[in-house]
Amino acid sequence: MDRTDPLSATFSALAHPARRAILARLAEGGTTVNVLAEPFDMSLPAVSRHIKVLERAGLIQQEKNAQYRRCTVNAAPLRAVASWTEQYRPIWETRLDAMERCLMALTENLDDR
Amino acid sequence: MDRTDPLSATFSALAHPARRAILARLAEGGTTVNVLAEPFDMSLPAVSRHIKVLERAGLIQQEKNAQYRRCTVNAAPLRAVASWTEQYRPIWETRLDAMERCLMALTENLDDR
DNA sequence: ATGTTAATTAACACAAGCGTTAATTACAAA
DNA sequence: TTTGTAATTAACGCTTGTGTTAATTAACAT
């Protein structure tokens, strides 16, 4: 089975909290690898690899400027995730899961008082 | 870093095309493991494990009935993905990526004729 | 030239993911 | 009770992911 399709790469890239944190930071504006690495309790090479994963998934871009690599967010894969998720909107709007039925029941009880 | 948070589990579960296919099939209605496994060129135990991954991520539920396990979609994690993605809507609505700038340029050229 | 800074690559260790076949559990039906 | 069906677990192998430290590349600055 093909596990190298773009959507799989995107979901896979987003499956690590450090990479989502990097993305969140970049949403506020592009910056360099060292700045991105600073808040993490992790070595620089580790962060560098996370960035590479994001780049290979097309979620970010790196442009060289002297010895710096400025990273910026690339929106397309996020849109793909959004549209994939939209496909399930009918389900999450109509169908209540177990927890929700439980919350509904609790709310009803509160209303009864 | 905590890699067992719910969102990571969800993205991780969605990162495999077989699991997304299983989810798509279940969106049409709950069914059993064997039925889910049928379209795949993969052994039953393999599919069983994919189902377990989806279940541990909270994306599906299994209810036992005799020797059958009926699987159904659970919407909550999908909503979480949607709302995580929404956070980046401003970016993907305003920011054009490289490919898009390229398409824009092409369109402009066409208009010029 | 030499040293400093930014970032990556190399080499390694260890855990997790994904697939297989064979064995096992749980239930139904004859 | 035996047989068949649904599904999981066991045991294994292989690949990928994630982190480390040490070494290396690339560019700037003195």
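qc> The longest strand of chain B covers residues 60-65.
qc> done
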